[in-house]
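From the methods appendix. Each design record in this collection lists the tokenized structure first, followed by the designed amino acid sequence. Records were kept in a plain field format so they could be parsed without special tools. The example shown here is representative of the layout used throughout.

RECORD:
FOLD TOKENS (120 positions):
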């Protein structure tokens, strides 16, 4: 095998091994109560990620101001948040659900929720 052929083969193999770039996705929002417009603290926010964003699920809680934020690093050439499912549960409130139709090309997805207080 000639040296030029070996070098060309190595370059071809390296080009074929190019990795898909890492992209950071940030999902954030606020959870408030309907009627009172007060933040819902310690609400559980569950995210179901579509397979294009790595699949699986993540869970976080809201802070004292009702804010939540969660991030994920994915390998993709085009960032698309369509299919991200977010479910919010909090004691004393009806649960809320949202399935995203956003493309989130900038790496950010904001999903705010208004929870209905349950009588009790």
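DESIGN:
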């Amino acid at each position: 095998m000639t040296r030029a052929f070996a070098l060309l083969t190595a370059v071809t193999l390296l080009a074929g091994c190019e990795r898909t770039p890492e992209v950071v996705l940030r999902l954030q929002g606020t959870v408030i109560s309907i009627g009172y417009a007060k933040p819902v603290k310690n609400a559980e926010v569950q995210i179901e990620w579509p397979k294009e964003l790595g699949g699986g699920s993540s869970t976080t809680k809201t802070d004292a101001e009702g804010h939540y934020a969660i991030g994920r690093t994915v390998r993709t050439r085009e960032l698309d948040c369509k299919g991200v499912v977010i479910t919010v549960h909090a004691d004393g409130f009806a649960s809320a659900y949202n399935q995203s139709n956003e493309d989130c090309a900038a790496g950010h997805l904001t999903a705010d929720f208004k929870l209905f207080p349950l009588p009790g």
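APPENDIX NOTE: The domain at 20-115 is CATH 2.60.130.10 (Protocatechuate 3,4-Dioxygenase, subunit A).
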